[in-house]
Design a protein that fits this description.
- The protein is an alpha+beta fold.
- The protein has a 5-stranded mixed beta sheet with strand order 2-1-7-4-5. A two-stranded antiparallel ribbon has the order 3-6.
- Helix 2 runs antiparallel to helix 3.
Amino acid sequence: MTNLITVRYFAGARAATGVDEEHLPITEPWPLEDLAGHLAERHGPALERVLSAASFLVNEVAGPRDRVVGAGSVVDVLPPFAGG
């Protein structure tokens, strides 16, 4: 098993980071809210604003922000989308 988390960014999150995805090393499971805080520190206030309203999929499953992300997981950052 890999010791990385893959984070994929969509729409405004991609614009705020300048990348489609990144791979972060992990040594133990990480609460999703802590991961979001780390990403905000890593990429700055533009991403922090996006993350405050974003939804997260972990391994393609939506859920609450208090879940834990383990090694090998894929986290999708989905900002709110306009439209109807």
